[in-house]
Amino acid sequence: MAITANRKANRTMAASFTAWLEFIAQLATILTAFLAVFAYGKYLLERRVKRQRVEDNPRAQKVSGKDKGQRSLLHLAAKLRMTGQDLMDTAFRSPYIATRVTESCQGFADRTRLEFNLERKAN
């Protein structure tokens, strides 16, 4: 009789432990989904901030009439503390930044410049 009661107690404890583990697994699933949405939102926000930083610098120069709003990648990388990859990615995504290539005296592509346009690019 005592053995049967002990077995029932063990089964009840095992069922309780299994239910607790299932609860923790469901909670982890929900938290993972929230974390993924938060991380994606942060990524989009950072990308937008980078685009605005790249657009603002040449925009101010072009609007003031000081120059054409062109900047080399090296100039922008130093001023904005961004990598060339980040700058190119941002420029390709921006509706106001156009990429221009200058030629060397031999006629080869020499430098890549980013130019701010007051009108949006045609897609």
Q: What would a concise description of this structure say?
A:
This protein is of the alpha+beta class and 123 residues long.
Care to describe what's here?
With 123 residues, the protein is α+β, with helices and mostly antiparallel strands. The chain has one domain. It contains three helices and three strands. The chain has helices at residues 2-64, 73-80, 84-93, and strands spanning 70-72, 97-103, 109-116. Strands 1-3-2 form a three-stranded antiparallel β-sheet. Strand 2 (97-103) and strand 3 form a beta hairpin. Helix 1 crosses helix 3 (84-93). The longest helix has 63 residues, at 2-64. 10% of the residues are buried. The mean pLDDT is 83.
The amount of beta strand, in percent, is 5-15%
Spans of 5+ residues with little confidence (pLDDT < 50)? none
* Rg, alpha carbons: 29 Å
Structural class: alpha+beta
**What distance separates the N and C termini?**
82 Å
What does the overall shape look like? rod-shaped
**Helices and strands, in N-to-C order?**
HEHHEE
Strand order of the largest sheet: 1-3-2
Strand count: 3
Describe the largest sheet.
3 strands, antiparallel
The number of distinct helices, counting runs of at least 4 residues, comes to 3
Helix content: 55-70%
* Domains (count): 1
What is the arithmetic mean of pLDDT?
A: 83
